[in-house]
Amino acid sequence: MINKYMMAAALFSVAGTAAAARWQVEITNVTPGQSFTPILAATHYGEVKLFELGTPASEELAILAEAGDTGPLSEKLEARRSVTSVQTLEGLLGPGQTAEIKIEARPGQRLSLAAMLVPTNDTFFAVDGVFLPLHGETSIQALGYDAGSEANDQNCANMPGPRCGGIGASPGPGEGDEGFVHVSNGFHDLGSADAAGNEILGPAHYTWNNPVAIVTIRRIYH
Question: Which residues form the domain of 112?
Fold first, then answer.
């Protein structure tokens, strides 16, 4: 006789051994002036999260948000048994451009994405643990988030990337940072230069309104 507990165990076993499937992920940059650094993509089970709003960013996420370096966060994710794949889509993704990546996962798993916006101090876009569609496709409007790990001085000396070429990750908490992850509110008018003559970028060309990216996830059947 098969009772409900045996049936539940059997269903769990089948789900846990389901054959891997493939999805195509398209990321479109919809900001007017920001570029995305290399994009981290991870497939995983539900207990994995890149961040929690209102709490401090992990050191690995702060490095991604301040320097565009996916390495430390990739290593951290790869060390977790709940994560089944981690890859980085290299290169910059400019305004209006679309990048494509193919992933492999098991039905019921989730996808997370993250990349820095440049030029910014510590702003990143993210999709944090969205379910992969079992059929067809799904589209997500991805927000820009502030890691809260660096002051938003909009100073070229403190922002990496081709536009500014400043420093990347700053060492530890600093004066003026918020200390927690929050939805980013863009650039503001802070003047044109600091006391040392370093350029301060303004909102005219580099601010944005959320969402900052459109992510389309499509199941591949061939």
Answer: 20-220
The amino acid sitting at 102 is K
Q: What is the mean pLDDT of residues 42-63?
A: 95
Residue 144 counted as domain residue:
yes
Confirm if 154 and 201 have CB atoms less than 8 A apart: yes
Assign residue 163 the CATH number of its domain.
Answer: 2.60.40.2130
On whether residue 15 sits in a domain, the answer given is no
| C-beta of residue 215 within 8 angstroms of C-beta of residue 113 | yes
In this prediction the pTM is 0.89
Calculate mean pLDDT across residues 105-127: 96
